[in-house]
Amino acid sequence: MGHWNRIKIAKCQILITNFFVLLLGLSLATMTVVTHFGDHFTVIGHASLQRNPYETLRYWAFYVGISLAGLLSLGAALSTIATVREAHGLMAADCLQSIRNFLWTHYRIASTLTCTSLALTVYAMMLCAFLWFAIHSYCGLDRRGRYSLTPRSHGCQPQEPSLF
Questions:
Q1: 7, 61, 69, 105: least CB-packed within 10 angstroms?
Q2: How many CA atoms lie within 13 A of 137 on its CB side?
Q3: 75 DSSP assignment
Q4: pTM assigned to the model
Q5: Could you give the CA distance from residue 54 to residue 61 in angstroms, rounded to a whole number?
């Protein structure tokens, strides 16, 4: 694998990682807001104590969570912008080439397996037909409608198998 291909693959991995970091930041922000404004925590926060230490902890956790979510999202966005800007439009093309090569390899494997299984199915069908004709020509129906292993009764004697 060439030097440029490794760089392009690394850039694709950076973009994918940035996407997941952005999702992590958004989910952290969502969790922080739901926790802060949720019914269970709001009731505890508004308890009528003169000095409620929980209220201070609740606000501190909310601000830290929102700040951390903002930093994660900002870092992911800036890293993505820097990666795309440095690539000068080549990123979308490494990425697509790598995906195309990956899919083409799997397409060849799948088509080979499909053709092989189709050929084996046709071969099995021909063997089944040959077996059915062989059994049907050797066995005959008796008067009750069942197959018997005796030769047919129209005077034909079974032939011995030969090489030709």
A1: 105
A2: 10
A3: H
A4: 0.47
A5: 10
